[in-house]
Amino acid sequence: MDSFLSLGLSEWLVKQCKQLGINKPTPVQENCVPAILEGRDCMGCAKTGSGKTAAFVLPVLQKLSEDPYGIFCLVLTPTRELAYQIAEQFRVLGKPLGLRDCIIVGGMDMVTQALELSNQPHVVVATPGRLADHIRSSNTFSMSKIKFLILDEADRLLEQGCTDFTKDLEGILEILPAKRQTLLFSATLTDTLHELKNIAMNKPFFWESKSETRTVEELDQRYILTPEKVKDAYLIHLIQKFTDEHDDWSLIIFTNTCKNCQILTMMLREFNFPTISLHSMMKQKQRFANLAKFKASVYKILIATDVAARGLDIPTVQVVINHNTPGLPKIYIHRVGRTARAGRNGVSITLVTQYDIHLVHSIEEKIQTKLKEYPVEEKEVHKILTQVNVTRRECEIVRLPLFFTFQFQLKKNSKIYLQIIEPELTAKRKAELEKIKSQKKKFKQKIQENIQRQKHRQLKKKLTKRKQMKRKKAAQETA
Ligand code: AMP
């Protein structure tokens, strides 16, 4: 099967695909589109970047064109940026239909969203938390007639990670009709398969990419073994090399915390690299603006936490650098999947410290591929080491507090400020507090003991007095 027409899609949709350069179905589309058109529930597990979004957008649009009404389809996805990306694909492919979509995500104005929901859009793309908020707080829209429920990055939605979506999902599922098609898609689906099966109503059509490896062949997967202290110098060296050699390439650097993300961004800017960041401690509008600037190649370097690890589709990304080795193979797969998408080439480089070697082994086992060492001229790295470390320290001490106080208008001594910016100071304060507490406790104990002793003394006095009285009385009686 080599054309979208033979999958059962209408001519107007095939034409629309062609206009966007989507000519031949990818395997996930070839397998899942006919099943969805047949009316079956579907679970699709395919490598990231293999056209999963279009695999559900196309059949939904076809069905919508046959019987258009709102709200026809609900798509749930774990991150706000992914929601925008999915809505964009619906909008572009569904343009001839005059498709009306609505994006419901946190960090944006709730009243505007409520108004949009009440206008009965054809497609709602949402993150679970904000949609559940709307369900709890308003009765101006109904989802009781939706035809399609789609869980994109389904495993993330159903796993109980740092953001647990299960409560919100329960609230959402309650207002959906039992008679619907449920479609579940992800690049790493198998672990939570049993849970997913419970959600799908009928016996679902299941399709999984046959390939043994979970990453694409076009991806050149590398590692660099480095001591923790030299990591940043390697990073700067790599960025310098890639930007010198390929001025049209974009790079994503993943790191583990929001704080690190911000520090690295500031540091790279100090070295004059056009850098922008994406993490969950930024205001939502800033997140969208930064992503748009990166997509438009205004900035060629994006430093991100795992909020950007899944699904984001940016064709110019040629390199992914893991500043920290991901703790879970699954996260590695999603991170490196930001490059080498839709048949293009890409490179991923993971910075590995001596403490991360076991993590690399479990990643290699999962992806069934051995990471190759990336050759680096160590002399060049050592030349910049001191400058890099001094710059980092300066960013940590001077620039980071300024950023967070501005971002959140935090007071310098507020709890959250101290936790984010000065964890060491927070630890010191905690220790001091503990000391004061234990001193207070000792003091209290001493007072109690003193009181007891005093009472004891008074009692003793009373008793001896009574004895003396008794003795006196007895002496008087005998006299
Ligand atoms: P996804 O895996 O859905 O994030 O898609 C990755 C990229 O592949 C997106 O830029 C899509 O526009 C593109 N794409 C989707 N389907 C096809 C196709 N059949 N042929 C070529 N590119 C495609």
From TrEMBL:
It comes from Channa argus (Northern snakehead). It holds the Pfam family DEAD. Belongs to the DEAD box helicase family. DDX49/DBP8 subfamily. This is Probable ATP-dependent RNA helicase DDX49. Residues 453-473 have a biased composition (Basic residues). Residues 33-207 form the Helicase ATP-binding domain. The keyword RNA-binding applies. CDD domains: DEADc_DDX49, SF2_C_DEAD. Its EC number is 3.6.4.13. A motif (Q motif) lies at residues 2-30.
